Amino acid sequence: MAAPFGMLIGALLPREMEGTLLLLTVVTVQMLIDPAGSGAKLTPFWSTREIATWAVDHTDQGYLSRGVLHGLAVTVLLVVGVAAVVSVRLRRRRHLRHLPVG
Fold it and tell me: What's CA 14's distance to the chain center, in Å?
């Protein structure tokens, strides 16, 4: 899910430094939020915590299934977000518009 998240940041913020700062901000906020709280589930990398807990602590399969399901859902949302941003940006470019025929 890191790749679609990076693609979305790159599509929204064309300057590399701004994108890097946004990524660092998101990761910092995720580290500050209580991982057991309900707000943590809204962060994009919450699934990595669940999968890592399952892998390191050898807990029940619930951690793995929640992590994978969250990761898939976030990845799908991010890919749809990237497609929407790119679509809007392409429609704004005049040289890519169709010329009338005839």
Answer: 16
